[in-house]
TrEMBL record:
Residues 417-439 are annotated as: Disordered. It comes from the Bacteria. It holds the Pfam family MUG113. It comes from Phytohabitans kaempferiae. The keyword Oxidoreductase does not apply. The lineage of its organism: Bacteria, Bacillati, Actinomycetota, Actinomycetes, Micromonosporales. Keywords: Coiled coil. This is DUF4041 domain-containing protein. Residues 314-397 form the Bacteriophage T5 Orf172 DNA-binding domain.
Length: 439
C-alpha cells in the first residue's frame, strides 16, 4: 500500500504594509511548488486517498485565492494613499513653465495672494470651511452634541490647514500638480475619518486653498523670471559701460596724438617745410577719420562685432556660442567669458564686424533656433552645432563680411592639460528619488 501524504496546512498571511504584501506572493509561490510535489506523490495512491488528497488541495487553493484577493485589496488601498514625490521624474516631464494665472509682475501676484488669504480667513472664521452633520446628542443633550461636533470640526480644520500651509510654503513651480494631489489626499482622509459625524472640508474652502497653491507657484516663477531679467540687464549695462569706456579712451588717445601732430605741423609750416607739412596733414586727416569712426560707433548702438566661439574642454566639440559685442577689441569680451567660471579659455572661430551687428546676430540665432541648448531662456546664446556648420551658415548670411574663419579650435590649455587623452569613466547614475508620503 502506498503511504498517505499528509495535506499541507496553509494559513493565510496577515501582512501589514508593502513588505507583507510582497512577502505573501513569495509564500504563495513556495506553496505552489509544494503542491506540485504532493501531486507527484498522488500517482501511487488508491481512489479513496486520492479523493481525500484532492479535497485537501481544493481547500488549500481556495485559501490561496482568498489570500490573493486580500493582498490585491491591500495594494489598491496603499496605492490610493500614496502621493508620489519623485523630483527627478517630475523634472524630466516638465517643459517650459506655463502660468495658470498670468499677471504682469510679482507685485500683482502678491496683491492677489493677499486678497485670497483674506477670503480664506473669512471662511474659517465664519464656520463655512468645514461641513458637519447636525442633530447629534450626548446623553439626550442636543447642545452637548453640537459642542462635540464643533470641537471635532475645529480639530479636523486645524489638521487640514497645517498641511495646506505646508503645501503653500514648499510648493515649487514645476511641482504644482504633486502638491495639489497631496492636499486632495488630506481632504479625502479627513472626510473618511470624520464620516461618522459627517465632517469634511468644504469644497469651496478646498478650492480656495488649491487656488492659493497655484497662485503661489506662479508668484515664485515670476519672481525668478524677474531676477533673471535683472541679472541679464545688469550684464548688458556692464558690457555697454565697458564699451563706452573703450570709446572714451580711444578718443582721448587719438585726440592726444592729433594734438602732437598739430604742434609738429605748426613748426614745419613756420620753417617753410612744405613737404613735411603735407605728410603731417595727411596723417592728421587719418586721425580725424579715426576719431569720426569711433564717434560713429559710439552713437550707433547696433554697430559692433558678432563672435562665434567654442570651448571644447568645457562643452565638447559640438557646441558653440554666438554673441555680439560693441567693444573696440572684441577679444576682450571673449577673454572675459573664459574667466574662472569655465575650466578652459574659449576659442574664437570668427569675428564679423557689421554696422548692424544686432540684426546679424538675430539672423544667426533664428537660423539655429531648433538647435538651442537652453530652450527656456532664449537669451542664452549656446547652440548644438559644430564650427563647420556655423561656417556654412555665416557664408550664406554674412556674405562678404566674413573675412576669415577658423574651423578647428586650438584649445591649447585643454590639449596641454592632457584631458583629451585621459580615459575617463562616465559618472555613476544618480540614485533616483523615490520617496513617497502616506497621508
Amino acid at each position: 500500500m502506498p503511504q498517505a501524504v499528509t495535506p499541507l496546512a496553509v494559513t493565510p498571511a496577515r501582512s501589514g504594509g508593502l513588505g507583507g504584501i510582497f512577502g505573501g506572493r513569495k509564500r504563495a509561490e513556495e506553496e505552489n511548488e509544494e503542491l506540485r510535489r504532493q501531486i507527484n506523490a498522488l500517482l501511487g495512491m488508491d481512489a479513496a486517498a486520492v479523493a481525500a488528497e484532492a479535497a485537501a488541495l481544493q481547500t488549500q487553493v481556495a485559501a490561496l485565492r482568498a489570500e490573493y484577493t486580500t493582498l490585491q485589496a491591500q495594494v489598491a488601498t496603499v496605492r490610493a494613499e500614496l502621493v508620489r514625490t519623485s523630483t527627478e521624474a517630475e523634472l524630466q516631464e516638465v517643459g517650459i513653465y506655463r502660468y495658470q494665472h498670468p499677471l504682469a509682475d510679482a507685485v500683482a501676484y502678491k496683491a492677489q495672494i493677499a486678497d485670497l488669504t483674506d477670503r480664506i480667513k473669512a471662511m474659517a472664521r465664519g464656520g463655512t470651511a468645514v461641513e458637519a452633520a447636525t442633530g447629534w446628542t450626548i446623553n439626550g443633550s442636543v447642545a452637548e452634541g453640537r459642542k462635540m461636533v464643533a470641537q471635532y470640526s475645529k480639530l479636523m480644520l486645524r489638521a487640514y490647514n497645517a498641511e495646506a500651509d505646508n503645501c503653500v510654503a514648499r510648493v515649487q513651480p514645476h511641482r504644482v500638480h504633486t502638491t495639489i494631489e497631496r492636499l486632495d489626499k488630506v481632504a479625502t482622509t479627513i472626510a473618511r475619518l470624520g464620516k461618522t459625524m459627517g465632517i469634511r472640508i468644504g469644497p469651496d474652502y478646498h478650492r480656495l486653498r488649491v487656488h492659493e497653491i497655484t497662485l503661489t507657484a506662479d508668484y515664485r516663477a515670476k519672481v525668478e523670471e524677474e531676477k533673471e531679467r535683472v541679472r541679464e540687464e545688469r550684464e548688458r549695462q556692464r558690457e555697454e559701460r565697458a564699451a563706452l569706456l573703450e570709446f572714451e579712451r580711444e578718443k582721448a588717445r587719438l585726440a592726444k596724438e592729433q594734438s602732437h601732430y598739430q604742434a609738429a605741423l605748426a613748426k614745419l609750416q613756420a620753417k617753410g617745410d612744405l613737404a613735411g607739412a603735407a605728410d603731417l596733414e595727411a596723417k592728421l586727416a587719418e586721425i580725424g577719420e579715426a576719431i569720426a569712426g569711433v564717434e560713429a560707433r559710439e552713437a550707433n548702438i547696433r554697430t559692433g562685432y558678432v563672435y562665434v566661439i567654442s570651448n571644447i574642454g568645457a562643452f565638447g566639440p559640438n557646441m558653440v556660442k554666438i554673441g555680439m559685442t560693441r567693444r573696440l577689441d572684441p577679444e576682450d569680451r571673449v577673454r572675459e567669458l573664459g574667466d574662472a567660471s569655465v575650466p578652459f579659455k574659449f576659442d574664437t572661430h570668427a569675428l564679423i564686424f557689421s554696422h548692424d551687428a544686432v540684426g546679424l546676430e538675430a539672423r544667426l540665432h533664428a537660423a539655429l533656433d531648433k538647435q538651442r541648448v537652453n530652450k527656456v531662456n532664449t537669451r542664452r546664446e549656446f547652440f548644438y552645432a559644430d564650427p563647420a556648420q556655423v561656417r556654412d551658415l555665416l557664408q550664406e548670411i554674412a556674405g562678404q563680411h566674413l573675412v576669415a574663419y577658423h574651423e578647428t579650435p586650438e584649445a591649447l590649455e585643454w590639449r596641454a592639460s592632457g584631458t583629451h587623452k585621459q580615459a575617463t569613466q562616465p559618472p555613476a547614475a544618480p540614485v533616483p528619488s523615490t520617496m513617497a508620503t502616506v497621508v
